[in-house]
Amino acid sequence: MANIVIVTETGSDITAAEAAELGVELVPMHVAIGDVTIDDGTLDPAEMLEQCRQLGVLPHTSGSTPADFSAVFDRIHEERPEVQILYIAYSAVTTCSYQSACAAAEGRDYVSMLDTGHVTIGLALVVRKTVEHLRENPDITVEGLLEWSLAFAKRVRMGFLPGDLGYLRAGGRLSNAAFVGATLLRIKPVVELLDGRLVATRKLRGKMAACSLDFMDHMLAGAPADTSTLFFVRSCGLPLAIQQAAERRARELGFAELRWYDTQDVITSHCGPGSFGVAFAVDE
């Protein structure tokens, strides 16, 4: 393989086990639970929410710091000084992580970076497909891989149904929260990543089981999808029946590879329990 190491944040919801399988390095994001701050992925999300419930607080997230990135960049460079690092970033407009990476990369000519404009499984999809492209093209330059990855990121579509709108509002990440209005009974907003921002694009009415399928149909109603891969994401508490129905619908739509991700602490802090999302690429 080319001497390129890919780095991304834990907000991709890529687990440590998957990162090891892909050869990807993870930089931690963070969650504050009252007066205690933890690294993303170090506490079971259901336990995190229970601790917040007991304290009467909502979790608050923060991005990766320059020190977080410096630690990862230093370790890679010390262990493999010949490699180039490609940082595939969590949406820069939603967090300080990208700016932290820029600060940490000063004076390091072996670090390149790109802003995917995605979070959670949208980012995971870009990372995984970039790794696959690197493995298929081991002689590619880091400039060539960055160009390919950025072009692929522009093809990715990602959206989700939040399980509890209160978490999303509290996090301040929803660009047009006024669109959603009051939290009405059985109204569920579709939240999509548009130009790197979380935007509520549609309101669905009904139970989560029915809304989840309507949501999938909405997401796939635009440009023709590349049906090779569909990523799902779920937060703790999403009923199994909804997951099974989503898989059946995906198979009916012709998707070949289906892959589930679980939200870790940062993403759970934004979407709340019982959330459901999808990510896929549109055809070139």
From TrEMBL:
The keyword rRNA processing does not apply. It holds the Pfam family DegV. InterPro entries: DegV (IPR003797), DegV_C (IPR043168), DegV_domain_contain (IPR050270). Transmembrane segments: none annotated. One of its GO terms (molecular function) is lipid binding. The keyword Ribosomal protein does not apply. It comes from the Bacteria. PROSITE patterns: DEGV. Signal peptide: none annotated. Keywords: Lipid-binding. This is DegV family protein. The lineage of its organism: Bacteria, Bacillati, Actinomycetota, Coriobacteriia, Coriobacteriales.
